[in-house]
């Protein structure tokens, strides 16, 4: 029997999530009702994610999402990068590495995870009210604060720009969280700079490019919570995407769910405590003339356990022109504008294809 969830009106922009222009849905699927106890009347969950009986449940995707085989992510020691011949090959092949010996104190990560959990488990209405105009922004149902995705992403999160963290507006409610986030982002900046400087050697970047193609002050920090999902084969925690950054650093709890696409297969990335995952973003692919790969990834939803992860994204200087033999020159600002325009038009990110000098032959 197919599971019927009948949305009468569901417009999947982040605005529509927030104002719930959703009317009655009816779900006739018994298995969903069985999962109800877990997912359910959690007052901290966005109404969009409440149980099928809540009348606000969105339409499931037609595709089914499943765990895949496990991938061995190359493990690199941040203290030994110079001598680690595997760095370039690892990044080129998969676009993903695991970092050990990265110097982030375990206590700092633990406290940040603790705060993230505490803030996100506040009642939904409180999160919305407190974070409406705050430097720390709350979002749900979409992969990022300003992305109007056509898919429902089974997640909620906090978004803050590194420059926003130092603004006085972020102090009050989030004092302690903010202090930890500042300290954490300083570590992220150090790690991304160390990695980028090493990779820059292989890219033959000159001094100016090495400086301007990575701007630590232009970083972004997000905390994600992936709520329990009654029907995880029909929804993704985060939809498949490549990151728009130069580099992304992920720190996850032990729940798992991250998957990467390699040779047409979705592989599970199994959490390894104490390590960080680094993935290359679109802008790294550009400045490497496609020698390095911006890896496609996604996050599975879970019907059993909530998942928390921390994401740090680093970008070039806003007005720095990225040059490549394969792509037309563009700035970060132009790239972001194009991504937003594509999402508005098509419901998803088109990405680097838009900037290619020679568009791929579609025939
Ligand atoms: O939560 C995760 O592990 C992945 C997050 C992610 O892909 C992103 O923020 O772009
Ligand atoms: Fe991502």
In short:
It is built from 11 helices and 12 strands. With 363 residues, it is α+β, with helices and mostly antiparallel strands.
Whole-number average pLDDT? 83
Reported by name, the CATH topology is Jelly Rolls
Radius of gyration: 20 Å
Major beta sheet, strand line-up: 1-2-10-7-12-5-4-3
- Helical element count? 11
Shape: globular
CATH architecture: Sandwich
What is the rounded distance between the termini? 39 Å
Give the helix proportion (percent range). Answer: 25-40%
Low-confidence stretches: 1-36
Attached small molecules = 2-oxoglutaric acid, fe (ii) ion
Structural class: alpha+beta
Q: How many strands appear in the DSSP assignment?
A: 12
The name of the CATH superfamily reads B-lactam Antibiotic, Isopenicillin N Synthase, Chain
Order of helices and strands: HHHEHEHHEEHHHEEEEEEHEEH
Largest sheet: 8 strands, mixed
Number of domains: 1
Oligomer: single chain
Level-1 CATH class name: Mainly Beta
SSE topology:
Blueprint: H1 14-19, H2 30-34, H3 36-39, E1 75-77, H4 86-93, E2 96-100, H5 106-120, H6 124-130, E3 137-140, E4 156-161, H7 162-165, H8 175-203, H9 207-212, E5 215-226, E6 236-241, E7 247-252, E8 258-262, E9 265-268, E10 276-280, H10 282-287, E11 297-300, E12 307-315, H11 332-346
This protein binds 2-oxoglutaric acid (AKG) and fe (ii) ion (FE2).
